[in-house]
Give the backbone structure.
Amino acid sequence: MADPELITTEEARKAFGVTRVTMVSWNAKGCPHERRKDPDGKTRIYYRPSEIRRWLESGGPGVKMNEPRPGGRPIGAVSAPAGGIRSELEAAELRKRIAQAAKLEMDVKEREGILVDAADVERANIRKFTAIRQAFETLPGRASAALASMSGAREIEDYLRAEVTAILRELATR
């Protein structure tokens, strides 16, 4: 499957804490999904968690937010409704499932290289800034002899501009 964000019906069912029957019902009511043929020729249904979440949060056609279901949790509850401990537990369970779906989306983005570890970025930036600092700190020692023989401000400026440009070009290729 070419799109790593797409998940199977089973993965969507687990992420949102619903049954297969509910997934079929949601599809009939307009839940965003895609039908694709697998290499084995079977047509399967795939979902994007972010689209399901938006659909649920918008009330999805025929799906009402916080609508009680016989023997089940309200769909789309994001805060504890009035009604005591049971309602609070149901709301917490749904928040957990929504968070799991968000984590699944983040995992997909990490696999795609869209999401990266902040510590890795920080280490890379430290290496870059260290190289920049070192390159510019060595400039006076490299340039002093050449500058001593120059008399005009324009000549000195041209020389320094060329040195700085050379440093920046070298850093850009690292």
